[in-house]
Amino acid sequence: MALLWVPTFVTAGPLESLMMPGKVIAGHAEWEKQCDRCHLKFKRDSQIQLCLDCHEKVAADMDSGSGYHGRSQEVARRECRECHTDHKGREVDIVLLDPQLFDHRQTDFRLEGAHARARCSGCHESAAGFREAPHECIGCHRTGDSHRGELGEKCSDCHDDRTWKRNRFDHEETGFPLTGRHRQVLCASCHPAQRYRDLPRECVGCHGVDDRHDGRFGRRCEECHATGEWKKVRFDHDRDTEFRLSGNHRKATCEGCHGNRPVFEEKLDKRCIACHRKEDEHRGANGDECQECHSPTRWGENRFDHDESDFPLRGAHEKLRCNECHLPGSEKPGLEGRCYACHALDDIHRRKQGERCDRCHDERSWIERVRFDHDVTHFPLIGIHAVTPCEACHVENRFEGTAGDCWSCHRDDDAHGESLGRACQACHNPNDWRLWDFDHDRQTEFPLEGAHRPLACDRCHRNGEPAEEKSAECLFCHARDDAHDGRFGSRCSQCHGTETFGTFQMGGSRP
User: Fold this and answer.
1) Which pLDDT value is given to residue 509?
2) Longest C-alpha distance within the chain, in Å?
3) How many alpha carbons lie under 13 Å from residue 68 in its C-beta half-sphere?
4) Could you give the 3-state DSSP secondary structure of residue 224?
5) How many other C-beta atoms are found inside a 10 Å radius of the C-beta of residue 31?
6) Hey, is 321 helix, strand or coil?
7) Which of 5, 59, 251, 291 is the most exposed place for a label (fewest CB within 10 A)?
8) Handedness of CA 394, 397, 403, 404 (dihedral sign)
9) What pLDDT, in 10s, does the model give residues 7-35?
10) How many CA atoms lie within 13 A of 343 on its CB side?
11) What are the Cα distances from residue 247, in Å, to 170, 208, 328, 353?
12) Confidence tier at 336 by pLDDT (50, 70, 90)
């Protein structure tokens, strides 16, 4: 009778270990020899319950419909092992979560606002599970809490997820509504060191250092100033005082008139001279009634009409300031009306033309529009001379004995070095020094022909040689060009022409 050996198992561990398809992950390593922690014999369908028995938080999510496993319809239709297959080795990640494809809307924390742009590692630390990430703002933003916990941990009461610096806190619900420029002020400007309680509500509590009046106007800043703009005041000087501000007085600062004196205790002298004595260029000679000539619109302008005096202001005199004629400290009942009385120092003629300046000049311009007619002199001004300044010819303003010939003034302009004489007018005209009408063919015994015609004067008349000493013979200029060394004589024109030195008039070859 044959015996059938049927093995009996005291424990399933050793045999099952031999049949195990591979090592489990590091997180399951302590239960690797306890197969029944994850598997029941012949009950494959019960494996999901074993997973949930161990992973209680996931089971709770699925029961409550929260978290990824409780919200995802795909998870509800699948077994745990379909996504988290084990026995792949210690280092294998069986979570299989792809951050690029993961839909965070299936979790309890939808990514909105700036969170949608955040990196996964910004909220999920590598050593912790994904579900361990905090849901409260303070969990991630505690280090960024500029209030240092003084306002509690309910960040969402004031801030939203679009931008951290934007807040929904309504200051109107406090005892200090924000109006005007206060709406633009940073919180820290009024709440130093994150203080939010027992802060002053009076203007001077924050703006004491800005009080340019040094307390002379009291502590109720709001009586004159508004929160819209600190420099704009509601105090009406025209209404609240006996001195209406007009003209430039409206631009003056309070200290400009009141200095450091108590404003409401001391009344000021309202006369112009009381404030403007230092600006009185007349040094008191015209009295203290400044308003008779000046207006508050502009101190430099005056209402005095000089045309009502014996000397109406015309031309350039209209632009002069009073003290240019009426020197400070030397005011007289009346100044002389003669030009020379004021312009003696401007007389470039040194009295040689007398003291009747108005015979040639007028009050529109001392230099321009001179009425002197140069054409009645021995040298009428024509061409360029008509626009030449007087001092160009009349050096040091000398008028008598001025030479009338070209050479006296244009010696330095003579490009001929006096070789053509001093009668410049024989060739040049006064319209332009470079314009000349000398006719060499008509005015000399040497007509310019051929290659001679385009030559400049100094090609033949050079080194200061007088023109009348020039010879018409070819060799006088072309001795160096004589290839015959004088063997054919000096009458070059018998063989050569003026067009080019290389042509011959005798027809054939060179002799």
Assistant:
1) 34
2) 171
3) 10
4) coil
5) 13
6) coil
7) 5
8) positive
9) 333 344 555 566 778 898 888 988 888 88
10) 21
11) 44, 31, 26, 49
12) confident
Sign of CA dihedral 50, 51, 57, 62: negative
Higher pLDDT, 446 or 335: 446
Global model pTM greater than 0.85: no
Q: What's the pLDDT tens digit per position in 224-256?
A: 888 888 778 788 888 888 888 888 888 888 778
Burial of residue 381, with CB atoms counted within 10 A of its CB: 0-12 exposed, 13-18 middle, 19 or more buried? middle
* Res 324 pLDDT > 70: yes
Tokens 């014996």 label which residue? 310
Q: Under 8 Å CB-to-CB from 162, ≥6 apart: which residues? A: 113, 114
* Region 468-473 average pLDDT: 76
Q: DSSP letter at 368? A: S
pLDDT for position 132: 83
How many CA atoms, within 13 angstroms, populate the side-chain half-sphere of residue 474?
A: 19
Whether the CB-CB separation of 470 and 476 falls below 8 Å is answered with yes
Burial 425-439 (b: 16+ CB within 10 A, else e): eebbebeeeeeeeee
Mean of pLDDT values over 88-106: 85
d(CA 381, CA 408): 16
Please answer whether residues 204 and 221 qualify as being in contact, where contact means their C-beta atoms are separated by less than 8 angstroms: yes
- Rounded CA-CA distance 316/325 in Å is 13
Inform me whether the pLDDT recorded for 330 exceeds 80.
Answer: no
Q: How distant is the alpha carbon of residue 329 from its chain centre?
A: 48
Other C-beta atoms within 10 Å of 229: how many? 10
CA dihedral 167, 168, 173, 174 (to 10 degrees): -10
Centre a 10 Å sphere on the Cβ of residue 372 and count the other Cβ atoms it contains: 13
DSSP symbol at 229? E
3-state DSSP call for residue 434?
A: strand
Q: Which amino acid is at 384?
A: I
Q: Are 408 and 456 in contact (CB under 8 A)?
A: no
As a whole-number percent, the residues of the chain with pLDDT over 70 amount to 90
CA distance 171 to 186: 12
Say if residue 67 is exposed, middle or buried (CB neighbours under 10 Å; 0-12, 13-18, 19+): buried
Residue with the two structure tokens 């509800």: 76
What is the distance between the terminal CA atoms of the chain, rounded to a whole angstrom? 157
* DSSP codes, 234-263: ---HHHHSSS---GGGGGS-HHHHHTTS-T
**Alpha-carbon distances, residue 349 vs 224, 355, 363, 380, 395 (angstroms):** 66, 10, 18, 20, 11
> 């007085």: which residue's tokens?
249
- 212 in Cβ contact with 263 (< 8 Å): no
8 Å CB contact between 492 and 478: yes
